[in-house]
Amino acid sequence: MIIILYILGVLLFILAALLLLPWRFGLQAANQPALDIKAELKWAFGLLGFRASYDSEGFNTRIILFGFSKALSSDNQKTGTDSAPEKRKRKGRRGSLSDYLNRSLIASFTRLLRSLVRALHLDVNLSGRYGFEEPDITAMAALLIRFLAGGGSAINLTPDYSQSVVDVSGYLRGRVIIAQILGIGIRFLFSKPVRAIWWPKIKIRRKRKEIIQYA
Prior knowledge:
alpha+beta
């Protein structure tokens, strides 16, 4: 019994350390002469971490455990050197984010962005253009970027509402405490405007299950 309690104590200590000690992250991107992206996430001065890269040679990921690095995957299919962004046709959809937009939801999302920007301690220097299949998502991204730029970051990104495209160069660095992000996310999900989106769907599913059980 004592051994089990000891093991549980150690596991709880490790979980608390992962949640309460800061993680550092970074992303560097270049699109000339070809797309080249490098991302890194590390904890406790690199004791644990994750690295990913994408270039003309393919996609590679590595995990770091107690200072030892191990490759997870490697996709070495060549993508060519053409740096022109890929254009995609917009797919038809049954619904969009605009179906739920209202002043209260926008206000909650704005508070979420402000909290995240403060929690991430960002250092950003980016330029280029971006776009998503849904213009609503592009608009949300533009709002987030406006908050980042307002924090003193060097950002010169232009939204493209006509197509899905990523043509960005520069870097992004920061640090984050996981427990703080979880708290921000939970507070956002249970805010009244957001809860009004998912809670009725849960109640409808419960009613359907009850009807099937008693049918």
